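Annex B. Sample input.
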Amino acid sequence: MASYDRNFTDELRERLSVVDVVGRRVPLTKKGQNYWGCCPFHNEKTPSFSVNEEKGFYHCFGCGEHGDIISFTMKLNNMDFRAAIAELAQQAGLKLPDYKPKPAAQIAREESYTTISESAAKTYQSQLFSDAGAAALTYIRGRGFTDDMIKKYRIGYAPRGNIIAGKFANTKQDAVIATGLCRRGDYGLYDFFRDKLMFPIMNPSGAVVAFSGRSMDGSEPKYINTTDTEMFHKRKTIFGLNFARDAIHRAGRSIVVEGQIDAIQMQCNGFPETVAPLGTALTEDHIAILCKLNRNITFCFDGDNAGKKAAARACGLVLPFVRDTSDVRFAFVTGGKDPDEVLKTGGADAMRDIINNATPLVDFLWTIANTAYVTSTPGGRAQAEKFLKKEIEKITDDALRREYDAEYRNRIFHQWRRVKKNDAATPVPNVDDITAKTLRGLIDAHPELAERYGDFLVALNITLDGPMLNPGFDLAAAEKYIVSLKLKNYLQRLHDDRKMLVAQLLAGDDGAREKIAAVDAEIEKSNARMELLAAAA
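Annex B, continued. Sample output.
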């Protein structure tokens, strides 16, 4: 049997939710923290099959079956390990590698990387409390960090010299270079991080795998991170997750902020479920990891242009992961502030107000469409509709995707095509209940008619919500029905106008005579159109 190393199988478990994998074959219902359904491995009428998304396993209390996505796929499909891995890789969109058992030398090499990174973290932390690190220590304390916080998050300082290169002078150079801590120059190894405030980056188990260094002299970029290594992949690593995992479970959500300092301050001031990507470069892998813990996510970014762009990108990335039980929201810290500043000036209550008033995903996506396109023009509305359609197609939950589509069609109908109050519009005609229900049914079956006859339908004061009748008309017959109704209302209006003009004529207004003639001509034309419609039926 082919062997696959843990890197690939772990990646499958990170990318694929056990609820999604099992849910393809077993109807599941969420109760409490777990999902429940009838066990596929034995006959039962009362659900005893439990699936825990956070821990990534299933367990049947009836027959005792237990396992993860790999064992579930193997047993349910009667597959061997290799075939199950291949199927799951396809579901995850990953290329199936031809792995061989991990050599002992590779295991030893990876262990050496961890040892070097852990030792470097201790060195940096000791340097922070030395004379060389005095300015960095003053800075981080000025940002509101206590010594206990500094110790917990293992914050340190990389001095200007080559302290790491010197420390590991008797270690194999390739091993030190592989950690990203040093690079090779003309005269040997030199430190990659120099004169930087150092934030260790830890994996979910708490082991140091990389570093993020903040500039102390004002130079750009403000932050530099370890380049990707065997142990560290930026697009798959979430800062602070090792501290936040249990809190995310307890809070029933995660909060995502932009930077390390914001994440730490949030965790230490009442929001322990907070994490951050390394910079604003949120990725699909980050979202997948967070959704495995909990599908409720609040993105809290700065209110500047960069923060808004990051939020819009996060919106597009999270759509494939949302379910009908998801609560995804977007909050912004305005006034040129970030979460760290809000916590300093307003405390946890001010930050809580921002989080509690976050915009739901459905509204935020609508806001993006209205901001990015000029919806007061036909062309802008067409572009915005195409954008919304493209975005909601990312939603993999069929029922939820249909609900989003219906929600936006309703908003388009009532907000983009509404009759303005100051329009010189005709009075709203009375529409009987059967006609209203029929119109709803026709629009539901042929939504393109809302585009063509939106202004008329809005003028009828008909909402798309409510009971409907579907007479089973095809598009041509449905359009005929609406055109006929429109002509009838128009004729009624013309007759009302004629009565008013006749009254004016009898009152001595000779100018009304010419207007009556024009109305009569219009009535004759409209009657001819009605006859044509009737003949075509």
